[in-house]
């Protein structure tokens, strides 16, 4: 028996949904459609399903939710669309509607409402959650866990010493942040001038699992002549909330960060995680219906720059590189940098400046690796299929280093290389790659 129709609730902006002219030009860029060949797993099919639910022609039941859940939110379709369909916004509003009206299984509810919403955005809690993970890995007991937990464990980095896990104590439950102020490297700045007064977003996953990458990002900014401010009061950017259909929670994150950063009167706000950057650049849109915050949100977003965007646009100098690249190097486009932010050239320029003739393009570089925020926990099967596809393409390049710009991609690719028995290939964040070049 079909589930009862949900009362009609206009969660979609009708004009924005109608912008889809059903041309199908987005289909070839959609990773889930590439894998399943099912129209319902394509952008065009999903927009049709969203409109059918909104119009009351389709109940908000398992079928519609299944195809929406399977969407990675990678937004490759937006970049391919000639009609300017704002798919990301349609998806976020549909997911918000689903989370408010659709009853999920106990397991999925726990995963989404507790693990993803109440742990990941809080670095202190995430560190504590990693303690049993370390023990299970040490005992080699991964196989005793359910599939989603095995997936999560596979993503925990091998070099746990670099993670700097705390001992259990409420006193040190908060993450060590980069210094509140890290001054520019005076020797490299012409006439002693500071070239920028920038804020740094230290991130949730980044600050817990990639502390060294954050430190390297700040050093690179200092080398580029910037004073870097990292306020300890900053919080989660809200990306995980927005992508999982919790828009009110995402707005609360946005308001908090705007308040913290606007006091500092910065030239730019730098982020080294593509997924977070995309959400930070959309605070203006997220808060546009709130008269007290719309302008402040737009001003904040206008200042947000990806690390590569800022470095490539500055006088950052990597000609001092002492890194002698002997092997091929390739670059994987993080979806949220390549599609919503349309940033593909600056990171390539930076990688090529170091790798020179050893740089090789990756086939399907901008096809999602399957990480997609918390997707590899909620949709482990499709995440695994896309990870395998990505690793096969990486192996074809013959590269020994894969560079990217997002923590989720890094963990996903590192886990995939390990599963393929290719520990000889390194997956590196671009900040770590560039920092090595400048050592
Ligand atoms: S490319 Fe754009 S207009 Fe064409 S089907 Fe896809 S979403 Fe619709
Ligand atoms: S966001 Fe990505 S997975 Fe979802 S419909 Fe668009 S291209 Fe496909």
Give your account of this protein's structure.
This protein is an alpha/beta fold and 439 residues long. It folds into 4 domains: 14-101, Orthogonal Bundle (Fumarate Reductase Iron-sulfur Protein, Chain B, domain 2); 106-172, no CATH class; 181-312, Rossmann fold (3-Layer(aba) Sandwich); 329-437, Rossmann fold (3-Layer(aba) Sandwich). It is 49% helix and 7% strand. The chain is built from 23 helices and 8 strands. It has a 5-stranded mixed β-sheet. It has a 3-stranded parallel β-sheet with strand order 6-7-8, sandwiched between helices. Helix 22 (407-419) links the parallel strand 7 and strand 8. The N and C termini lie far apart (65 Å). Bound molecules: iron/sulfur cluster (SF4) (2 copies). One iron/sulfur cluster is lined by residues 29-32, 43, 46, 71-77, 87. One iron/sulfur cluster binds next to helix 3 and helix 5.
Notable traits:
binds iron/sulfur cluster, 8 strands, Rossmann fold, Fumarate Reductase Iron-sulfur Protein, Chain B, domain 2, 5-stranded mixed sheet, single chain, 439 residues, alpha/beta, 23 helices, 4 domains
Q: What is the topology, as strand order, of the major beta sheet?
A: 1-3-2-4-5
Question: Roughly what is the average pLDDT, rounded to an integer?
Answer: 86
Gyration radius from CA atoms, angstroms: 21 Å
Q: Which class of secondary structure composition applies to the elements?
A: alpha/beta
Helicity range: 40-55%
Question: What is the level 1 CATH name of the largest domain?
Answer: Alpha Beta
Count of discrete structural domains = 4
| CATH third-level topology of the largest domain | Rossmann fold
